[in-house]
Amino acid sequence: MAKSRRTRRFRRFWISLPARSQRPARIDGTPPTLTRPAKDAEKARRIDRGRRMKRNLMVIGIGAGNPEYVTVQAVKALNKVSVFFIPNKGQDKADLHHLRREICDRYIEGSNYRLVDFDIPERAKDGVYATDVAAWRAEVRAIYERLIVEELGAGEIGGFLIWGDPSLYDGTMGILDAITAAGQVELEYEVIPGISSVSALAARHKVALNRIGKSFTVMSGRQLSQGMPDDGGNVVVMLDSRDAFRDLDGDLEIYWGGYVGTEDELLVSGKLRDVAEDVARTRKDARARKGWLMDTYLLSRPSDDGE
Ligand SMILES: C[S@@+](CC[C@H](N)C(=O)[O-])C[C@H]1O[C@@H](n2cnc3c(N)ncnc32)[C@H](O)[C@@H]1O
Hints:
Layout: H1 36-52, E1 55-61, H2 72-78, E2 83-88, H3 94-107, E3 114-119, H4 129-151, E4 157-162, H5 172-182, E5 187-192, H6 197-205, E6 216-220, H7 221-224, E7 234-238, E8 253-258, E9 266-271, H8 272-290, E10 295-300
Parallel strand pairs: 1-4, 1-5, 2-3, 2-4, 6-7
Antiparallel strand pairs: 7-10, 8-9, 8-10
Bound molecules: S-adenosylmethionine (SAM).
């Protein structure tokens, strides 16, 4: 049964101040409040102490949408974490935020953990792609560093709940490595794999990702719009905001899935020449209905060897 939210401890980081009795009393006998510079100095001391303390983190893959994609290993890891850092990615993705909370409610025994929400900034999209991404990553890195230093107490384990699998189109490990490399904060992290949207898509369509003896490529919609790889293998496409499948050879077979594994799951498959418009319309309608869409598709080449 889901635990009441009220029973959970939402403890913020505790600021260490001298006991009231140790602070000089005011003339009228009331204890003093700290002045702004004194508060800032105290905060700087606390952060400095925090930076020198070693932090332990878990990067936990939670699967790509179905709470039952959470593995036994992930459940064990969830139960070790004291503080979960939960990203807010705007109103549209409130569902994803909700699912992370649901996973904690469902799989963690007791209520001896807390959730710290944080906002993920929007990435600028008007400049050079690589420059915009680098600037955005630096901003996110600063946020993570602040969270780790200010929100994680001594002996506590911090947790990041990663959609799908942490190794696929996710920057968390890279950001933690960059924080370590910068040398300001000492941290160690463990990674728990998760069921990626790619595995979930293949399972729902009951299709193998690669053809026998061939490789397969995972790429973004942006890359696919430059053309298919010429190695003759299949292609899995993620992060496609532009219907990149539309201009391809109509003989290709597409296995498309939106919100795979969730209650809103949508699946379409067939030869591109027959279903490309259907997929494009389904994507457009889904975005209009929910405000956001996460979809992935496999493009399979026509078999030339009787497979
Ligand atoms: C930032 S990537 C994260 C991928 C994730 N780490 C994984 O293992 O699936 C987000 C992309 O993953 C794909 N995706 C994630 N969840 C999905 C789902 N439930 N159904 C279909 N595609 C999904 C979409 O292509 C989406 O644009």
